[in-house]
Structure formats: structure tokens, C-alpha cells
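Friendly challenge for the regulars: who can give me the C-alpha cells for this chain first? No prize, just bragging rights.
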Amino acid sequence: MVGPNGNESSATYFVLIGLPGLEEAQFWLAFPLCSLYLIAVLGNLTIIYIVWTEHSLHEPMYIFLCMLSGLDILISTSSMPKMMAIFWFNSTTIQFDACLLQMFAIHSLSGMESTVLLAMAFDRYVAICHPLRHATVLTLPRVTKIGMAAVVRGAALMAPLPVFIKQLPFCRSNILSHSYCLHQDVMKLACADIHVNVIYGLIVIISAIGLDSVLISLSYLLILKTVLGLTREAQTKAFGTCVSHVCAVFIFYVPFIGLSMVHRFGKPQDSLLPVIMANIYLLVPPVLNPIVYGVKTKEIRQRILRLFHVTTLTSDP
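First reply, four minutes later:
Bragging rights claimed.
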């Protein structure tokens, strides 16, 4: 293969090894992983369906929740089918362009999810600290624009990554250490200077994930300051509306930060740990988010129970 810069490259495809050291167990591990994937898809589709069909839930908080659920489905779907093919059918090869597409999808969707979590934090800040202005600040058209901005931001920040990878010659091994294509993993196979990739990756993390996490923390500091001045009953109600979002923030950011730390400071011989953390990062948030919102959010919980109650009644003879 000849790269765009004229250098010879042997990377017409990459090899995904799945779980290094656990090749014999991969076939059986695929069953619980597939079950978790199905739970994630069904759970998030249920959230979207409930919010879509219940007009009383057409509010900013629940619309942002729908965006989060949609992104969770896309993130897990961008990696899990190929992972299942590796574990069940030993389909370990992935074409160069397909790898770049998967890499772009995973990273851009993660950036979009971080933006949506920030928007949800802003929604909680306005609702608790400025309740009289909430309806005028977060109108439906404005919420739609925020969702579109999240998509554009995530895609624009990650678009240069596959372009940079395309410029690199690959004359070493074409074996990737993960179950799917990650920028950190692919660029390490290049036999050229990758400082541009490393620096841009750090810029993206700081300007997107880092900035978002700081602003989310600031939002909750301001919320906490306001809530502490309320009555006990009002405090309980205010905290109750924030618990689900705080859980979603931790579920998203903790695996992401852990994966980033392992990639930058982990030892080369620890090949299994970053792979497991990468799988956790893409699968656990989509599984847990609908469970957390279904359990902690009264309106969602009541409608889920009503939905399954009606389904049970209609299926009875």
C-alpha cells in the first residue's frame, strides 16, 4: 500500500487480537458481553421510546437524556458487533479504511456524549439556581441547537485523527492490541514521527473532555451553594433531580480517565489491562445509564413500570 505522502506502507489491514492471553476463553466470554450489549440497546431504546411517546416528558432534561441514550447505542454498536465476530468466528482482520472509520466513530461519539453531559449539567444548574428563567433559557429550539452543536463539535474535533493516521507509513506489525480500533493503538504501529498525533490527542482531551469535566464540576459547585440555602425538603428534592446525572458523569468519566492513564503510564507488559478497560469504557456506560435513570428518576421509573404492566396484560390470555 502506498500512503498519500508517497511512503510505502504495508497496512492494508489491521489484526485485532481481542483479549490477549485469553484467546481460549474468548468464545465463552462473548456470551455475557453480547447479553450486556443487548441490555444496553434495549434499555436505551426503552428510554427513548418513553420520552418520545410521553408528551409530559418533552422537557430539556429528558430530551438531553434521549440524546445520551442514542449516543450510548451508537457507541456500543460501533465496536460490539466486530468484537463478537472476533470472539465467535475468529474474524480478526479489519481493513485500513474501516479501522479509521471505526476509530473516528468511537472518538467522535465519545466527544458528543461528553458535550451532552455538560448540557445536562447546565440544565440542572438553570433549573435549581435560576428556576424562573429555566423555561425561557432552555427552550425546545435552543435544546435542539445544543444537540446539533454537540454533534458538530465531536465530529470536528475528531475529524483530523484519521487524516493524521493516513499520513503515516506503516512498516512494522499490523497487530492491534485491542478489540477495536483506537487512535492511541493505531498510531503506535507507525514507523514515523507521531508527535503531531500525540500533541493533537492531548489538545482534544484537554479542550473537550477536560474542559467539559471542569465546567460540570463548576456547575455542581454552584448548585451545591444554592441548595445549601434551601429548606430540608427543597434540598432533598433538588438533590434527587441531580443524582442520576451525577452517576452518569462518573460512569462516563471514570473509565475514560482510567483508560487514558493506563495508555500513557501503563507498563508494556500489562497488555490485558488496557484492553479490559477499553471494553469497560464502551460497554458499561450504555448498560448502566438506562438502569440508573430508570431507578433514580421517578417519572421514568413509573412509565417503565406502566409500559411493562400494559405489555403483560395484553399478552395474558
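The chain has one domain: 13-300. The domain at 13-300 is CATH 1.20.1070.10 (Rhopdopsin 7-helix transmembrane proteins). Your move, everyone else.
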